[in-house]
Specification:
globular, single chain
């Protein structure tokens, strides 16, 4: 007999993600906006800037200053009178410096580490999430409820700000404007494509232009580093035979989940992306049987979100069927969402190497 979480109810052998459809309230959705376990203990001191890239050490200094400004703003924010009372008395709020900081740079230069270090350096309440996690939060709660949930935060940190979906960009710009008006401080990062560094790359100018309604609220901090093009994407391990995959899943025990890949992608369409993380509660190892290349954009984007949540939790991955290198079609890797797909390939390859 199957349990609600996809296990066999006996506590032995692999369960499955198919069948899991967790229901999450506002409190848990907001409570999960924290750095992933990979960045749970990072600090400015644990960041190791490259001696050949002075901008990295300069970025640490700038972000330490921003964290100090956020702490100062938090104290004054608690002591301020209401906006209406200040208006009636003719006493405008005193300026507290730029509300936001934007880290501009390529892959692999430590932006997420520094963003998480900033978050850790600031007293709560505070939120840390990827761009997609915030848009999913709005989708799950509704815009006004999401604004209410985040308006009490000292700092809202947004990792991997994305501009590939005009609707989501407008939504996020509107959300940031509401938060700035509420006195919330901001920090954001973005990534660049491997083939976009140096020419036509997503950079500070693009960010400021697309969020022009709140662009003036951000101070740009540039981080230089090794060109991602020269490192390339490593090849993932070869897929296993089906019987070997099943045998490994059985040996992995009750924390493992084994799913037919086609059934899993169908199931993802029935679960809101904001709940993908909760689907992975208690999971220690992920097995995908009969992986096939994805050709549908919607299926591909849902798989990207699942890959991000798996990577957050450092869940080893093993697959049978097609190679992970062929998960997304060439058209998808050259299209408007290519940054998401490249990131997913990099992360899934890393998890597959752990699984091997």
């Amino acid at each position: 007999m199957s349990t609600g979480d996809g296990s066999d109810g006996r506590g032995r052998g692999p369960g499955a993600l198919v069948g899991r459809s967790p229901q999450l309230g506002r409190d848990r959705l907001v409570a999960e906006l924290v750095p992933s376990p990979r960045f749970a203990d990072v600090s400015f001191a644990s960041y190791r800037p490259s001696p050949s890239e002075p901008s990295q050490a300069e970025a640490v200094t700038e972000l330490e200053r921003h964290a100090e400004r956020v702490q100062g703003a938090q104290g004054s924010r608690g002591e301020k009178e209401s906006g209406l009372r200040r208006l009636l008395r003719g006493r405008p709020a005193e300026p507290q410096g730029t509300p936001g900081v934007y880290l501009d740079g390529g892959f692999g230069v430590g932006k997420t580490h520094l963003l998480a270090a900033t978050w850790h350096a600031v007293p709560g309440p505070k939120a840390f999430g990827t761009f997609v996690e915030y848009t999913n939060l709005v989708g799950a709660l509704g815009f006004q409820e999401a604004v209410r949930a985040l308006s009490s935060m000292t700092l809202v940190a947004i990792d991997e700000f994305e501009l590939d979906d005009p609707g989501d960009t407008v939504l996020m710009a509107r959300l940031l404007r509401e938060l700035v008006d509420a006195g919330v401080r901001l920090a954001a990062t973005s990534n660049t494509l491997p083939d976009s560094l140096g020419e036509g790359r997503f950079a500070a100018d693009d960010f400021m232009r697309e969020i022009q309604a709140v662009g003036d609220n951000f101070e740009v901090v540039r981080i230089e580093g090794e060109d991602y093009r020269h490192r390339g994407l490593p090849d993932p391990p070869a897929p296993l035979a089906d019987d070997e995959l099943v045998a490994r899943a059985e040996r992995a025990g009750s924390g493992a989940v084994l799913d037919d890949f086609g059934a899993l992608t169908e199931h993802l369409a029935k679960v809101h992306p904001s709940r993908y993380g909760a689907m992975l509660d208690g999971v220690t190892h992920v097995f995908w049987r009969d992986l096939q290349p994805l050709t549908d954009q919607n299926v591909g984007l849902r798989t990207v979100v699942l890959a991000d949540r798996m990577y957050d939790r450092s869940l080893p991955l093993s697959v049978s069927g097609a190679s992970l290198a062929n998960l997304f079609t060439r058209e998808m890797l050259e299209g408007g969402y290519r940054k998401k797909y490249y990131r997913a390939l990099s992360r899934l390859t890393s998890l597959a190497r752990e699984g091997a």
